[in-house]
């Protein structure tokens, strides 16, 4: 029976929280170990496409998500200087009709809070920084920085780009700096003044080598977010994020459209983050350990699908465990990788190239995906 096997999820980010919620729904015995001392509302926005909303439906928070977020009718791509429309991708009612669920943008912290609320508090342990993992064949022993130890039958590594579980499987290897910085800011929506365009609910401003993505993060559209992509040749990987400033933003976006300038001038606080990647891994699991999300395939945020891939991973992993049974976890893990590697690698590649929706294209392959109903590919015949 599922509940007899102890499953440890390392990391309570969006992918880990989704994995735990789905495992609990399926009747598994789950515990999440998170290194942070408590949950906090981190200042960033996030896209939640229909491919993710179908999973939120299964978890039971789709309606709450729809109430929380902003529902753009279109994804616009605009020229950095003129504001001319380069692409106009229908979302809104079109997404519901064509892809089976809504497309929304929301504050990442509000999304994360809803996922965490879907978990009983007894299933989450905070302040648990994993320092060592030992797969002993019949059980996995976990050691934490606070001196405590735990045992589990299966361990899901949802612990991000510097995953301790990934290191246990493949050794220590730093991620690759992707050559870009992302500046992020959330603040009250500014007034529209002469010379500006009205704020699109979802728009990406493009120049040849950099961009700014901006969208509302609340249903009232009273809070707006931007995230940039700015080339920077060198970066110290020890600095995952640093404070930035209005002056730095003014310099980087000199000459851009007045609408972009208004966002910069109304910025309250802005940070800059290094964008990290990894080459596709030779394996996603070994023994009783399995990876998902950034632990497995970190990517640039240029498709706005990084968290979506982690959440899809979580749903497919649970589907495969239900399909095969935890008694044959190796086969379940092989089935999981066979049904995730090709899609995750495609999203990783397009995110790297930063071409997504720059011109009019059909995003149905991405947004219309249904992790619960897509036909499963057997491991032996999986596309490489």
From TrEMBL:
Q: State the reactions this protein catalyses.
A: 6-hydroxynicotinate + NADH + O2 + 2 H(+) = 2,5-dihydroxypyridine + CO2 + NAD(+) + H2O
Q: Which cofactors must be present for this protein to function?
A: FAD
State the superkingdom. Bacteria
Domain spans labelled FAD-binding: 7-349
Note whether NAD occurs among the keywords: yes
Instruction: Tell me the keywords, alphabetical order.
Output: Aromatic hydrocarbons catabolism, FAD, Flavoprotein, Monooxygenase, NAD, Oxidoreductase, Signal
InterPro entries, alphabetized: FAD-bd, FAD-dep_Monooxygenase_BioMet, FAD/NAD-bd_sf
GO BP annotations, alphabetical order: nicotinate catabolic process
For this protein, the Enzyme Commission number is: 1.14.13.114
Q: Which GO terms describe its molecular function?
A: 6-hydroxynicotinate 3-monooxygenase activity; FAD binding
The entry describes its oligomerization and partners as:
Monomer.
Please report which protein family the annotation says this sequence is part of. Belongs to the 6-hydroxynicotinate 3-monooxygenase family.
Q: Which PANTHER family match?
A: MONOOXYGENASE, PUTATIVE (AFU_ORTHOLOGUE AFUA_6G14510)-RELATED
Query: What's the protein here called?
Result: 6-hydroxynicotinate 3-monooxygenase
